[in-house]
Design brief:
The complex is a heterodimer of chains A (about 240) and B (about 80). Chain A contains seven helices and two strands; from the N terminus they run E-E-H-H-H-H-H-H-H. Chain A is an all-alpha fold. In chain A, helix 1 (about 25-45) crosses helix 3 (about 80-100), helix 2 packs across helix 3 (about 80-100) and helix 4 packs parallel to helix 7. The longest helix of chain A has about 35 residues, at about 200-235. Chain B is mainly alpha-helical. Chain B has one domain (about 5-75): F1F0 ATP synthase subunit C (F1FO ATP Synthase, Up-down Bundle), CATH 1.20.20. In chain B, helix 1 runs antiparallel to helix 4 (about 45-75). The longest helix of chain B has 28 residues, at about 45-75. Classes of the chains: A mainly alpha (about 240), B mainly alpha (about 80). The interface between A and B is medium-sized, with 12 and 12 residues.
Chain lengths: ~240, ~80
């Protein structure tokens, strides 16, 4: 489908066997980052004790993520707050920009979400080993398991740990792609049923757009909160 | 059987994953509602958990969709 197509804009840049041209995907990533930065710069321009509307929204986003981190990962995760906030805002704004007609959804491509999830995975694993040393491997040995079950449990735990980046990235990618495909299918129904029967799918498409806005927020939230949960595993070994 | 036909059947079978997703989402919202009716004052605090569970359950259905797409287009 044309809305998922990646094409290069501007000159073709080739380094080795890699095509590093500036694409519409990169354009929308730059756009996402600039929208976030401009909004926060504008919102904190006139700081006042009683905030105006823009400052209020910025404070709400800040407090939302701050509360999420302290509830799921505890006090020790405080230094990672800027990372989680930028992650949440990037995914959220990328999802929402994709809802505009004729725009491009950055997060509907598995390579983008997988890159995000893989860096989170590597980072969390490094944090865990840096904090606990070799005893971080205790994460794979849940307490209170009978000794004869341990070989099986450890294998399952290791597999589930290694599949974290895959499930994290596929969840976001599949949600965004499925939503946009569904809108496209209902849009196709409107065209093919014509002026007489097209009103029903049109209503569905409007309702689905509302649902997609909700999903865009929920998926950004889930992406960020799962990062917090993984971080919690690495920071506080509960087992 | 022709490969093309087998692909279509396989993609259709992969959509059975939706049954599990439907069960999961229904279970989550049903449990949330019945718990919220019993203790409405505690309901607001569990709302983020509801969203988290909803997204996790919905994702399993979408994994099925990804499998169907891989069968249809990647092989």
């Amino acid at each position: 489908m044309s809305q998922f197509e990646v094409y290069s804009i501007g000159p073709k840049i080739q380094i080795g066997s890699f095509d590093l041209s500036f694409t519409n995907s990169s354009l929308f990533m730059v756009l996402t980052v600039s929208v976030i930065s401009l909004f926060f710069i504008a919102a904190t321009q006139k700081k006042s004790l009683v905030p105006n509307k823009m400052q209020l929204i910025a404070e709400m986003a800040f407090e939302f993520v701050s509360k999420m981190i302290s509830e799921t990962a505890g006090k020790d995760a405080r230094p990672y707050f800027p990372f989680i906030l930028s992650l949440f805002l990037f995914v959220l704004v990328a999802n929402l920009l994709g809802m505009l007609p004729y725009s491009f959804t950055v997060t509907s491509h598995i390579i983008v979400t997988f890159a995000l999830a893989f860096f989170i995975f590597v980072g969390v694993t490094l944090v865990g080993f840096a904090r606990h040393g070799i005893s971080y491997l205790k994460l794979f040995v849940p307490s209170g398991v009978p000794i004869f079950l341990l070989p099986l449990i450890i294998v399952i735990e290791v597999i589930s740990y290694l599949s974290r980046p895959v499930s994290l990235s596929v969840r976001l990618f599949a949600n965004m792609m499925a939503g946009h495909t569904m809108l496209k299918v209902f849009g196709g129904f409107v065209v093919s049923l014509g002026i007489l029967g097209g009103w029903l799918p049109l209503g569905f498409a409007v309702a689905l757009t509302g649902l997609e806005l909700l999903v865009a927020f929920i998926q950004a939230y889930v992406f960020a909160i799962l990062t917090c949960i993984y971080l919690n595993d690495a920071l506080n070994l509960h087992h | 059987m022709e490969v093309e036909a087998a692909k279509m059947i396989g993609a259709g079978i992969a959509c059975i994953a939706l049954a599990g997703a439907g069960l999961g989402i229904g279970n989550i919202f049903g449990s949330y509602l019945s718990a919220a009716m019993r203790n409405p004052s505690a309901a607001q605090k569990q709302f983020p958990n509801l969203l988290l569970g909803f997204a996790l359950a919905e994702a399993t259905g979408l994994f099925g969709l990804v499998v169907a797409l891989i069968i249809l287009f990647a092989f």
